[in-house]
Amino acid sequence: MGISQTVETAPSIADLVAAEATTSNTEVLQWVTEVAELTKPDAVVWCTGSQDEWNRITSEMVEAGTLIPLNKDLRPGSFLARSHPADVARVEDRTFICSENEADAGPTNNWMAPDAMKAELMPLFDGAMRGRTMYVVPFSMGPVGGAITQLGIEITDSPYAVLNMRIMTRMGQAALDGILPGGEWVRTVHSVGAPLEIGEEDSAWPCNDTKYITHFPETLEVWSYGSGYGGNALLSKKCFALRIASVMGKNEGWLAEHMLLLKLTNTETNKAYHLSAAFPSACGKTNLAMLQPTIPGWKVETIGDDIAWLRPGRDGRLYAINPEAGFFGVAPGTGETTNPVAMETLWGNTIYTNVALTDDGDVWWEGKTDEVPDHLIDWQGNEWTPDSGRVAAHPNSRFTVPIQQTPTLAQDWYEQNGVPLDAILFGGRRATNVPLVAQSLSWDHGVFVGATISSEKTAAQEGTVGELRRDPFAMLPFCGYNMADYWGHWLEMGETLGDKAPKIFQVNWFRKGTDGRFLWPGFGENSRVIDWVIRRVEGDVTGRETAIGTVPADGELNLDGIRVPEADMAELFAIDPASWLAESDLTEEFFAQFGDRLPGALQDQLAGLRSRLGA
Ligand SMILES: Nc1nc2c(ncn2[C@@H]2O[C@H](COP(=O)(O)OP(=O)(O)OP(=O)(O)O)[C@@H](O)[C@H]2O)c(=O)[nH]1
Ligand SMILES: O=C([O-])CC(=O)C(=O)O
Ligand SMILES: [Mn+2]
């Protein structure tokens, strides 16, 4: 039903909202009505998450030219979307934490006072959905009713966002029914910021040069304007599940983390372990989550690839869930040899964004196959041949696919109350300095290690690829409050967990030789590192203590069946005190910006490191 129909008594916006409403919760109805009155859409659709709804929206988008259906025999139920060439990644400089007090956002976030931000946003949202349909998308992060689960609603004028949300979350009626009067839920609003005049033709990827990704942690709201790209538009993901949830967790005694989650089973003893790992964007979470061990003795199953919520359980251990229901993964570099599990997962029902199209209606990206096709349509819709001199797929091109298609999915993904964690890994992309693996000397030292992670920039955020930046806990762009308070919260969690706390390790798959090649083969071979990690957890190996942590002693890392030259192995574990001292100076500078909010325990850890390095 549209308000553009020429009847004398055009229905009011409130009527439009109420007519199709699938809830009687007055708080929800009132909020949806307010947003509709502000944004002035032509129509309102309450999403139920049904297959019919999916079919209808995909057909409409194919007709509008926004989605290209892929060859049904090769990729059933799958589509390609090409974004605007300037709307391809998260926009961190346009991302704001709008807490009442600036100090609560901390020095690593852009901040604006909530009232000031709302005053800036409201004129933009006023009429932003004109000529478009407003979708009301209820979703659950985690199994509905679970101990760690949270609920939210995204209002969006992007059907692309709706389809992605249906894959990425438990979206639909059950989530809406779970929102009880007076209950806690997160309100998120998204507009591509491209209202249509009557008769104006739409573009395939509407967006706006002006972009705002704004978070209001005190009122549990997200307002996102101007971008259709995943991390900016799928508000369940980085906006809610990390930025807002990290604040909820701080207040309620849990943690929202940029972590993959996996289950490991020792095939001899049948004992199961759970491990989470925080690596910055495009630094290997999806790959590790789908690890295919190259050594015998381990079965690896996937639980999550990007976000984990952690909460102490009744038995005093730390429990984790993957709040999401799909993967929004980096396409380039994903291939049969690097990540066969992902390739199998992608058999169908997938939305591809900014990859290349083959002549037979399939998708391609750099690294998908060894041989490069002779002809493609590139991510911008142009003819492409291998001598075009440019990439066929955007470096941050992505696939969105339901987690349930993963052949290695652990039954634990369905666990209402999560899985107990045995180990936590922190990592980054470091060409130098950081060894392949090192165990932290204590929980506090582990928090220090997490707090001081730096990594080379990737294509997942705008900016210069390769530049080294601090990315504490891989949360630099995702922590919704003062990072120093966040470290304090982690330190407190260690006190709460005591000797039931998971063990903390640092890893680096990306160390390079002077010739620029990776020293470690990575991917499936990372199982050798995980194997050592679990043997440390069990106390089966002693390791060798160094200034920066405990590394495998000679012979402890299983290298059966691979050939890494001895010189490379030595370089992978080389710890150069001079460069670590130089790094300590940078850490001191980095810490200084937090002033007296920096927990004293981290200062102590820095002093301890320097003294172990012989300073
Ligand atoms: N050399 C090397 N490259 C790796 C390894 N694991 C992953 N990569 C590459 O790193 C890139 C990103 O990997 P992903 O697993 O998609 O990264 P992610 O952390 O899930 O990224 P986000 O979805 O942005 O959070 C891909 O190009 C991978 O091929 C590894 O062990 N060694
Ligand atoms: O948020 C996104 O757009 C994709 C992602 O996982 C990341 O960048 O970490
Ligand atoms: Mn991520």
UniProtKB/TrEMBL annotation:
<keyword id="KW-0547">Nucleotide-binding</keyword>
<feature type="binding site">
    <location>
        <begin position="396"/>
        <end position="398"/>
    </location>
    <ligand>
        <name>substrate</name>
    </ligand>
</feature>
<feature type="binding site">
    <location>
        <position position="429"/>
    </location>
    <ligand>
        <name>GTP</name>
    </ligand>
</feature>
<feature type="domain" description="Phosphoenolpyruvate carboxykinase GTP-utilising N-terminal">
    <location>
        <begin position="30"/>
        <end position="250"/>
    </location>
</feature>
<keyword id="KW-0479">Metal-binding</keyword>
<keyword id="KW-0464">Manganese</keyword>
<dbReference type="Pfam" id="PF17297">
    <property type="entry name" value="PEPCK_N"/>
</dbReference>
<comment type="function">
    <text>Catalyzes the conversion of oxaloacetate (OAA) to phosphoenolpyruvate (PEP), the rate-limiting step in the metabolic pathway that produces glucose from lactate and other precursors derived from the citric acid cycle.</text>
</comment>
<comment type="subunit">
    <text>Monomer.</text>
</comment>
<dbReference type="InterPro" id="IPR013035">
    <property type="entry name" value="PEP_carboxykinase_C"/>
</dbReference>
<feature type="binding site">
    <location>
        <position position="306"/>
    </location>
    <ligand>
        <name>Mn(2+)</name>
    </ligand>
</feature>
<keyword id="KW-0963">Cytoplasm</keyword>
<keyword id="KW-0342">GTP-binding</keyword>
<dbReference type="InterPro" id="IPR008210">
    <property type="entry name" value="PEP_carboxykinase_N"/>
</dbReference>
<protein>
    <recommendedName>
        <fullName>Phosphoenolpyruvate carboxykinase [GTP]</fullName>
        <ecNumber>4.1.1.32</ecNumber>
    </recommendedName>
</protein>
<feature type="binding site">
    <location>
        <position position="398"/>
    </location>
    <ligand>
        <name>GTP</name>
    </ligand>
</feature>
<comment type="similarity">
    <text>Belongs to the phosphoenolpyruvate carboxykinase [GTP] family.</text>
</comment>
<dbReference type="GO" id="GO:0042594">
    <property type="term" value="P:response to starvation"/>
</dbReference>
<dbReference type="Pfam" id="PF00821">
    <property type="entry name" value="PEPCK_GTP"/>
</dbReference>
<keyword id="KW-0312">Gluconeogenesis</keyword>
<feature type="binding site">
    <location>
        <position position="238"/>
    </location>
    <ligand>
        <name>Mn(2+)</name>
    </ligand>
</feature>
<keyword id="KW-0808">Transferase</keyword>
<dbReference type="GO" id="GO:0019543">
    <property type="term" value="P:propionate catabolic process"/>
</dbReference>
<keyword id="KW-0670">Pyruvate</keyword>
<dbReference type="GO" id="GO:0006094">
    <property type="term" value="P:gluconeogenesis"/>
</dbReference>
<dbReference type="InterPro" id="IPR035077">
    <property type="entry name" value="PEP_carboxykinase_GTP_C"/>
</dbReference>
<feature type="active site">
    <location>
        <position position="283"/>
    </location>
</feature>
<feature type="binding site">
    <location>
        <position position="281"/>
    </location>
    <ligand>
        <name>substrate</name>
    </ligand>
</feature>
<dbReference type="GO" id="GO:0046327">
    <property type="term" value="P:glycerol biosynthetic process from pyruvate"/>
</dbReference>
<dbReference type="InterPro" id="IPR018091">
    <property type="entry name" value="PEP_carboxykin_GTP_CS"/>
</dbReference>
<feature type="binding site">
    <location>
        <position position="90"/>
    </location>
    <ligand>
        <name>substrate</name>
    </ligand>
</feature>
<keyword id="KW-0456">Lyase</keyword>
<dbReference type="GO" id="GO:0071333">
    <property type="term" value="P:cellular response to glucose stimulus"/>
</dbReference>
<dbReference type="GO" id="GO:0004613">
    <property type="term" value="F:phosphoenolpyruvate carboxykinase (GTP) activity"/>
</dbReference>
<dbReference type="GO" id="GO:0006107">
    <property type="term" value="P:oxaloacetate metabolic process"/>
</dbReference>
<dbReference type="GO" id="GO:0033993">
    <property type="term" value="P:response to lipid"/>
</dbReference>
<feature type="binding site">
    <location>
        <begin position="229"/>
        <end position="231"/>
    </location>
    <ligand>
        <name>substrate</name>
    </ligand>
</feature>
<dbReference type="InterPro" id="IPR035078">
    <property type="entry name" value="PEP_carboxykinase_GTP_N"/>
</dbReference>
<dbReference type="InterPro" id="IPR008209">
    <property type="entry name" value="PEP_carboxykinase_GTP"/>
</dbReference>
<dbReference type="GO" id="GO:0005829">
    <property type="term" value="C:cytosol"/>
</dbReference>
<keyword id="KW-0418">Kinase</keyword>
<feature type="binding site">
    <location>
        <begin position="523"/>
        <end position="526"/>
    </location>
    <ligand>
        <name>GTP</name>
    </ligand>
</feature>
